[in-house]
Design brief:
The chain is an alpha+beta fold. The protein is 45% helix and 20% strand. The chain has helices at residues 72-76, 96-103, 108-119, 125-135, 140-147, 151-162, 166-183, 188-195, 200-211, 215-218, and strands at 2-6, 12-19, 24-27, 33-38, 41-45, 52-55, 60-67, 87-89. One of its GO terms (molecular function) is sequence-specific DNA binding.
Length: 220
């Protein structure tokens, strides 16, 4: 069972999930960074470049905060590219006493929210604009021009904020758009056009490369 809702902080979603033993979970890349409490342990799920697939060895409860693209590194004090495709125990970057208090909390969401609120830093406005532009399907060059950044500076700041460069971010945002459209019942031919793929074959190749399975398996 999965549920999510808007957290008290801007650009942050709170979520919870219960997984039965043996449950398989495929998490698609979304440009986000998650701070997760799982059965008394706390870790960071860094920004992924491809889908992550896990199997619950036993019944598992998860509570988490999902930071929108570009917002998590300021809270954690770690550049996103140091967390890309990694699951990192929070104890590696925070004081043991602080992590222990989170791990032992009766209300994990409240504890995680308090932790994030105490460490909150307003995200880089330029990177928020880059993420919005990528989500809207705007060309990378146009986004760079609007933000007043050279290609080199855009690449460097994107890696720090998102964990990868602007072209990878754009592919991931396009994947999320495509999956959302497909799950809403749109025909795949329409999905390819609306999401900004060259054609349906391009859609199929890119989804398989990023998600690890065909689009049809993500909507069933």
């Amino acid at each position: 069972m999965y549920a999510e809702w808007a957290a008290e902080l801007p650009h942050v979603i709170a979520w919870r999930s219960t997984m039965p033993p043996g449950a398989v979970k495929r998490v698609l890349p979304d440009g986000c960074l998650d701070l997760i409490w799982q059965d008394g342990s706390v870790f960071i799920a860094g920004p992924d470049t491809t889908a992550q697939v896990g199997v619950a060895p036993a019944a598992s409860r998860l509570f988490a905060l999902r930071f929108a693209a570009g917002t998590g590194p300021g809270v954690l004090g770690v550049p996103a590219d140091e967390l890309t495709d990694r699951r990192v125990p929070l104890a590696q970057i925070c004081a043991p006493a602080e992590v222990r208090a989170l791990a032992e909390a009766d209300d994990p969401i409240a504890a995680l929210s308090g932790f994030a609120r105490r460490r909150w830093r307003d995200p880089d406005r330029a990177m928020v604009a880059v993420a919005a532009g990528a989500r809207a399907g705007r060309p990378v060059g146009a986004i760079a021009d609007e933000c007043g950044l050279s290609a080199r500076h855009l690449q460097r700041r994107c890696r720090t904020a998102f964990g990868y460069g602007p072209k990878t971010l754009a592919r991931i945002m396009r994947l999320q758009t495509a999956v959302g459209l497909a799950r809403s019942g749109r025909p795949f031919a329409d999905v390819s056009v609306v999401a900004g793929y060259a054609d349906q074959a391009h859609l199929s190749r890119d989804v398989k490369a990023l998600a690890g399975v065909p689009l049809g398996e993500l909507v069933t």
